[in-house]
Amino acid sequence: MNNIISWNARSIINKETEINYLIYKENPDIIAICETWLKDKDKFMIPNYDIIRKDRANQIGGGLAFCIKNSIQYKDIKLNDSQEQKLEVQAIKVPFNNKWLNVILMYNPCKNITKEEIEHYSNQIDEPKLIMGDLKAHHPLWELNLNPKLSNKTGKTLFDFLASNVEILPTPPGQTTRFDPVTGKTSTIDLIIGSQTLSHFEIISGQHLNSDHLPIIIKIDDNQSPLKNKEKEWHYTKEGWTKYQKELFKLKIEDTKALPIIARQIITQTIKEYNQRTDKRSLVYRMMETCKELKILIKTNSISSIAQIPPWYVFTKIHKLILCIIFLKTRRKNNKKSILHDREHNV
Fold this sequence. Notes:
2 domains; 347 residues; 5-stranded mixed β-sheet; globular; alpha+beta; 7 helices; Deoxyribonuclease I, Chain A; 6-stranded mixed β-sheet; single chain
C-alpha cells in the first residue's frame, strides 16, 4: 500500500469533483470518510473502488464509508456496539507486511466520549491497528497552543486512553486538520492513533476540498521495517540535543502523567531528524540525560526496572546490558557503604 486518507467530507453527495481530484493527486489505496450524509436510497460509486458504507439510520448527517481500491484484498470487520453507542464506528482489515492491518474509522457527533467506549472498540481488533477519524477531542498534547482549561471531556478521555494503553499518536502536534468556517481558528481534531510498530507512518494534512476538515494523508512505506523488527539506537549530535531540550521546555509540562506520552511522541517525531549512527558512549549519556530531563526515575535496585521506562523506547540487548552494568555498579557502591557502616559500628 502507498497511502490511506481519512477525511470528514461533510457530505459526499455533492463532492464528486473533490473526490476525483483527491484520487488523482494522492492515488490513495483507501479513503475513510466521515459524515457521508448518505441515506439508503442514495447511490455512491467511485470507479475502480469498492465502497463499504455505514449510513446513519433515521437521522440526518453522520455516516461512514470505506472506499477501497478493487485491486486490494480486504475484509469487513463486524464490531459489537458499545453500551454507550455515542461513536459511529466502522472497521476493515487489509494486507500489510505479510499480515492484516486492522483499521477503525470513528466519528464523534459532538458527544462526550468515555475511555471505556474507545477501549471497547480498540480491544476487538488485533495488532497492528490504526484508529482514525474526527474525534472532536481537544487537548494541549496535540493542540500545542490550546489553553489546558479549554480541554474538553473527550480530549481528556483520549489522553487517558493513550496514558493507559500501548497505542501511540502519530499525528504531529499542532497539525491543522480543521478550519472553523466562522472564526477561521484552526484545530487538531482529526486524529490518527496506532500501534507502536506503525510509528514510521507519515501523517500530513492535504489541501482544502470544500469542507471545513482537511483530508489527512497517511503515507505508508511497505518496504520500511516496523520498529519492532528493526531496532534502532538513537544518537543525537550536540546541536540536536540542544534542540530536543528546547522542544521539551516549550511544552510547559504540568501534569506528570503526560510525561511518558510526550516523550514517546517527541521521540517518534524527532528520531528521523538525527544521525542514527551507533555511538555507545553517546547512547548511555543520551538515555540517562533524557530520563533526567523528563523526570523519569530509573530504579537501580532491580534488573526488572527496565519496565519503568516509557514504551516509546525500544531496548536492544546493548541497552539491557547497560542497565545491568548500572545496577551492578550501584550495588557495589551500596555494598561498600554497608561495609564501612558495619566497621564504624563495630569500632
